[in-house]
Design goal:
Residues 299-399 form the IspG C-terminal domain. Its EC number is 1.17.7.3. GO terms for molecular function: 4-hydroxy-3-methylbut-2-en-1-yl diphosphate synthase activity (ferredoxin). The protein is an alpha/beta fold. The protein is 44% helix and 17% strand. The protein is built from 13 helices and 17 strands. Helix 3 runs parallel beside helix 5 (126-141). It is elongated and about 80 Å long. It starts with 15 loop residues before the first strand and ends in a 14-residue tail after the last helix.
Length: 421
């Protein structure tokens, strides 16, 4: 594919209201995540949902796998509301979702959306009956549904039929291509059954998750070609650490660039004891770097080289990034537009002044053999030169002042001068 620079026009999809968050219909791509707590543990689940929501997850999915977890859902919803968190909760159902929703009406009411896996909603003659039971519950409580196909739990009857049909052809397709088609058909046939049952298209979101990058791209682009349903994107079982981040980013950025996708999740395996909110941050950063949304100010920092033997610029860049992200929940309301701020923290004279001039506010720290002075640029003009042992702290103060001055409605540029000792 060869395209002009910039993302392709967004695919026209049907808008779905998920607990007050609009998915599809041209709305900004929504970031979501999922807890890994035992939902029956109300305290742990509330804490993790709160952490995910505060880090920027706009929808949070929770596992509802047994009576104890279903009974906990209304209490979780109530506790979150007492904390002032209105984040929509999605119930993730497998195998016995029809029964849990029927037996726990308060759970059915408290959830903002139900997620159904057509590969394990039921088997043989029970499959359609139990699927329809969930759809009827969604209609009763006016809840949207995500029909989430996953190739790790694909409808085996459908796959077998398509494999048999393929084998009968004179020139059969490769098994991988047939599996892709089975994933697409599973989503579309399930959506058709949901609509026949009475669920509106504006209450249906589809997903078709696989764990290989090229398969995911192929499946979603074809699914988008054959349907106008809102689509949730995610590379399932992406993996841990940099591998999971790279694989998810590689797949989702291409799909999004093609104008496909209305909501995303980065399915990272946490490091042992790791922070679940990492997947939210990665999702936000992906949407931000490809130009779809702005969540936090951008900090440009050089990678370092032999001219930058000091670690000051690395430490300062990290401090500034952490400080900006930590303050964003408050600043987003207090300083409208602050998420568009660009900060530069550079390590030597080669690119430092130029990059700092391109940023809203930037600093060029001295490299090896350079004069121990750090010019600061605001809106393209040099406004100060910092010296001494407090350069980092002084620059942090200048960034905070700049945010207050620019986004708080005051003059942004201080008078030119020298600072430090």
């Amino acid at each position: 594919m060869t395209h002009a620079a910039g993302p392709q026009p967004r695919r026209a999809s049907v808008a779905v209201d998920v607990g007050g968050v609009l998915v599809g219909g041209g709305a900004p791509v929504v970031v979501q995540s999922m807890t890994n707590t035992d939902t029956a543990d109300v305290d742990a689940t509330v804490a993790q949902v709160a952490a995910l929501a505060r880090s920027g997850s706009e929808i949070v999915r929770i596992t509802v796998d047994r009576d104890e977890s279903a009974a906990a859902v209304p209490r979780i919803r109530e506790r979150l509301e007492r904390l002032g968190l209105e984040v929509p909760l999605v119930g993730d159902f497998h195998y016995i979702g029809h029964k849990l929703l029927a037996d726990h009406p308060a759970c059915a009411e408290a959830l903002a959306k139900y997620r159904i896996n057509p590969g394990n909603v039921g088997f043989k003659d029970k499959k359609d009956r139990q699927f329809i039971a969930i759809i009827e519950t969604a209609i009763r409580y006016d809840k949207p549904v995500r029909i989430g196909v996953n190739w790790g739990s694909l409808d085996q009857a459908l796959l077998t039929r398509l494999m048999d049909d393929n084998q009968a052809k004179g020139s059969p397709l490769a098994a991988r291509e047939v599996t892709r088609e089975a994933i697409i058909q599973s989503a579309l046939l399930s959506a058709e059954l949901a609509e026949q049952t009475g669920l509106g298209r504006d209450r249906i979101i589809l997903s078709a998750k696989v764990s290989q990058v090229q398969d995911l791209i192929a499946v979603y682009l074809e699914l988008a070609r054959r349907s106008d349903h809102a689509l949730h994107l995610g590379l399932t079982e992406a993996g841990m650490g940099s591998k999971g981040i790279v694989a998810s980013s590689a797949a989702l950025s291409i799909i999004l660039q093609e104008g496909v996708g209305d909501t995303i999740r980065i399915s990272l395996t946490p490091e042992p004891g790791g922070d679940r909110t990492k997947e939210v941050i990665v999702a936000q950063e992906l949407l931000q770097v490809i130009g779809f949304r702005q969540f936090v100010p951008v900090v440009a920092a050089c990678p370092g080289c032999g001219r930058t033997t000091s670690t000051v610029f690395q430490e300062l860049a990290r401090t500034i990034e952490d400080d900006l992200r930590r303050n964003m929940p408050v600043w987003r309301d207090k300083y409208p537009g602050v998420e568009g701020l660009q900060v530069a923290v550079m390590g030597c004279i080669v690119n430092g002044p130029g990059e700092s001039k391109h940023a809203d506010i930037g600093i060029s720290l001295p490299g090896t053999g350079e004069s121990p002075a750090a010019p600061v640029f605001v809106d393209g003009r040099k406004v100060a030169t910092l010296r001494g042992t407090n350069i980092a702290a002084d620059f942090q103060d200048m960034v905070a002042d700049y945010i207050e001055q620019r986004f708080g409605g005051k003059s942004a540029v201080p008078p030119t001068g020298e600072a430090g000792s």
